Fold GTPase Era.
Amino acid sequence: MDTEQYFAAQPAAEGYRSGFVAIVGRPNVGKSTLMNHLIGQKISITSKKAQTTRHKVTGIYTDETAQLVFVDTPGFQTDHRNALNDRLNLNVTEAMSGVDLVVLVVEAMRLTDADRVVMKQLPKHTPVFLVVNKIDKEKAKDKYALAAFIDAVRAEFDFVGHEVVSAKHGLRMANLVAALKPLLPEGIALYPEDMVTDKSSRFLAMEIVREKLFRYLGEELPYAMNVEVEQFKEDGGMYHIYIAVLVDKENQKPIVIGKGGEKLKKISTEARLDMEKLFGCKVFLKVWVKVKSGWADDIRFLNELGL
Ligand SMILES: Nc1nc2c(ncn2[C@@H]2O[C@H](COP(=O)(O)OP(=O)(O)OP(=O)(O)O)[C@@H](O)[C@H]2O)c(=O)[nH]1
Ligand SMILES: [Mg+2]
């Protein structure tokens, strides 16, 4: 069914609400983990390392009373200026300008200068809701200390409301959805009710490989890499996916490949299993490593990658 037919088929239910909700915050506060838990599927990649998310990723939550279209954004970059980081920040500010509601995520008991830089970017004419994440942390278990922390954050910006959650453990997700719904305008569902993301399978495949690189490589390297889908085709009820990992320098290649190809094998096996789970079919996946120097500062190349 195309979009127009879909709209025609949908009567606007009384009191139904729908809208776009941008999830923003400094790197590593748990934005992507939160979005995945809200929609119940792993659409956006996550890792222990900061600056994991590079693209805006849409996750659609639908129930009988509302549809919330979440937009997960890259963590706002405050150090290390290059063309890539400038582009990521531009994506964040753009994402905030076109939505009905902004959710600022902070980590419980830890407000940093990087959080304050993000707060300065928050829009003036769109409501902003505060989410205090990671309340499972030991330090956040003291109710009085947590309440004082929330007061301190709310003193720094005029939020329309707040909620505390643990995205990792899926705690208080329903409370959060209930708090966000009334902040959206009345209107019909914007996407079909069984749709969970507007991203293509091709994009999701690329992101899954990037997540494994973050997971299995050292501190610095994943930031100097990117991933390119060279081929993606369906054949005989199976996906055939060919993906290149782009590194900056020749000497980074063996680090990704590992002794006897071990590391690359681990990365591609795990990525394939995740893809099969997400796509619900068998996947043939081939991953290899290519050298492309200076890609993070090559504006034309960033455009080609859709960043
Ligand atoms: N303890 C705890 N850890 C969490 C929680 N939510 C997320 N994390 C962890 O925090 C780390 C960062 O999570 P992400 O969801 O990737 O964070 P992000 O804000 O999307 O990060 P960027 O995309 O890099 O900006 C991961 O190791 C998560 O497992 C939580 O509620 N409690
Ligand atoms: Mg993220």
